[in-house]
# Entry
Amino acid sequence: MTHSQRPRYEDVQDILKYQLSRRGVLGAGSALAMGGLLSACSGGGGSYTDEGQGDDKPKQTMEVEIGDANIPTPREKTLVVAQADFTVFDNWNNLVPNGAPGASGFDIMVKEYMFYLNLATGELMPWLCTDYSYNDDFTRLTFTFDEKVKWNDGEPMTADDFKFTVELLRDRPDLLGGGGDLATYVKAVKTPDPQTAVLEMKSSNPRLHYNFIAVLLGAFDIKPRHVWEGKDPLSFRDDPPVRTGPYVLRDAIQSQKLFAWEKNPDYWNKEKLDPKVEFIVYRSTAEQADAAALAFEKVEIDVGSIDEEHAAQLRTRGYPNLITTQFNDPCPRALWLNCDPKRGLIAEPKMHWAISYLIDREKIGKNVWPVDVPGAQYPWADYPTNEQWEIPELAEKYPLTYDPAAAEKLLDEIAPKSGEGKRTYDGKPASIEFITGVAVDEYEYVMAKLVKEELGKLGVQASLRSLSGSVHDKKWQLGEFDVSAQWVCDVSQDPVQLYRNLQSAYAKPIGQNAVGRNNVRFRDDEMDQLAKKLGNLDPTSEEAQPLLKRALEIYYETLPVIPVIQTGYPQYYNTTFWTGWPTDEDLYQVPLNWWGHFMFIIGRLEPTGQAAP
Amino acid sequence: MTATTSERKTEPSPPSPRRPQLTTFRALASRHPLAAYAVRRFGLYLIEMWGALTIAFFFFRLIPGDPVQTFIQTLQQNYIYNKEASAEMIALYQEEFGLEGNVFVQYLRHMQKLIFEQDLGPSLINYPTSAQEVILRSLPWTIGLLGISAVMAWVLGLMAGAMAGWRRGKPGAELATNLSIILGHVPFYFVALILVYVFAYMLGVLPPRSAYNAAIAPGLSLDFIGSLLKHGLLPAASIVIIGVFNWLLSTRMLMIPVLGEDYLTYAEAKGLRPSRILSRYALRNVYLPQVTAFGISMGFIFNGNVLVEQLFNYPGLGSTLVTAIKQLDFNTILGVTDMAIISVLTVNLILDLTLPLLDPRVKYW
# Structure
């Protein structure tokens, strides 16, 4: 899977870093030779598909050759996922850097969460908990835990484990996930009975529960008190991990770069989830995209390891066992615009709109992104759960359209042309510096390049630089950029998350570390007040609606971040050994194999009866 | 004035306080020339090592970007609402990873820990494991595969080169020489790709990647050793094939001038068997430069064969280095680089000191 096919959010550091390597020297050198393999390797073998064969699709006549997956478990009983590159094999402590490796299976079917929000359907699924509730003034949040829950070592999980974990994180800001909202809001955790936990807050917060719902990737990870108590959380390795999920660690093989998980025979929630898959292997996939795609073709891997380019080749060749399922990333691609007056022209709100008018969203969605995606009007993903935040009246008033003439008119107002046809701002040539953290052939780069060229046509000097991840991040945090071409990931549950991040209090002077908040140095007194008020209101309440509307209007007036396109990411599944995958027609769950929600997909899989080679 | 001058001429000058020491040193050196050479050579070794370690440190540390900040920022996004905590945490881990302060302060701390504590600091790619432990885990795989392959290539190349030189003008020798000229400069990863294509995908007789069969538990069992050899065959072959051609060519080049030497004619006149003349008279005069060259080439074992490890998904030092570079894990990067520097310099030091044992004609005094 290439860089572009992966959502860029959450912890997928491994994935992102891994992706960089794909585009390295190795890939270039080996791609030439390995490319021939794709066309050379086919032969006899079993085949199965649950994908329909319409007239418009190539006939699925190719025979599937099954290769040796080289895994420590019986292939026909094993689901093989290859998504990331692993470096850590003996540490499951996710409170320290590079502890529990992401996309290794641990976050998916070993850890379980209190609630899951299924973004594909909008359903909130209570899991470790049965429900949550606030008191009237949002100063007390009560969780009720399912009394059946037990750890994979047989001990019961209770509210006391929750209390232990909350207090550990609240009091230890040096731990990953420590401090933050828990330190700001949680005064005390009370456990009146083993199934009830009450968070008493220092001040009202109607959103504290967001921390405990798996919406994107995962959520709050409850630690077993009987395992963690008395351990130093900075050095404890938590190996093997004791959690509540339906699978337990069987092997972590560093020299093979794989993790093998096996079914927990004493899983607490078999009534609702009793997977047919006996073993799951998460392995590092080949560094070269061609070799990785070949592994998928030869069914050495069931999920992941292939990108759209290679998937398209397989479809063309009539590969019968490929299912492609589209799912939008939670982060629309976007341009972030520096609002600090010291940056000159780019701080002008009219300049923000001029840039927005120069974005041809239709062209980017159809020609730049590898699959057709719509333009984005709001700074959040177009999930069913986000529809409630849309305000059509404002979208109509502030349509994000491609209109170079309107852009030129705005530029004439703020940066008029000199006699030589070049624009000037504040007596100096008008110039804009774009940066991006992706490589020059990646989609965000191309997206920014198109806008840069449009600016050039209108007489604004623009430059675009592709920076390595850490260099880009440094400039991003220090505010040393005009426009950063990337994505907007601030809204997972409601737009107030974005507005709160844009508060003036977080706007650091250029050159100071923004530490992940308000990197564009946006300042607006009214927005500050709205964010503060909305922060204490249930966003679905009637009282919040006019405030939400006004906040969105200020957002449109100032456009500190311009949404460009919704981000579609196809996911690929091989049906040779397993079927029951989510499809475009039956998208019953978020189909991303590195999100916690993938546990429910594993629960739906059925063996095809295909024998191992 | 004259008297004074005369007095000065005749008066013995007062002894310099250093002169007796120098004299003693020279006397000692003249009595123990090998020891004196060893001391001088060791001093040079230390200076070379300091220079190389310093250059390596600044080379990597001047790469822009802050790996800790980038890494923690990304991880923090798991928790969406906990971003305020990250400034404090970044400072904590910058100190932990030796990244606080300016680059000179970092350098002094790095050298102090390296020299006096033999501590490279924690590894970012496998925190909180130390960088040296991460390196030591990968090292056996690299030595096992690349070390043995390099030795095999050297031995075979030396023998083949000696034969090619000895039988110069014969069709077999000419074929080998011309093949070496053609193939000696083909990148070994390209050969590796061809081998994978032919033996793993076309014929399907050898595995295309990994170090062993994951279904077999590592240990001293025959199954495991067999699997290890089977999986190591293709990567080893790619190194050995190209290595043999290279060593063949250079050995042949060294062999040819030796063949015209009088002592070979004399040996022949004595009626010695050709094989004895080749092995005891010709080859012994050829392999010394090759021993030195092999010592220099040791560095490639640590960093030159990264591509082969990557291609075959082999869990060696090269793969660890690539992963560390991707995440800007300075401690691990420097650890691997420092190890390569120390190994190459030490091997060369040992070779320099032991050459007199290999060739009695070599004298340093």
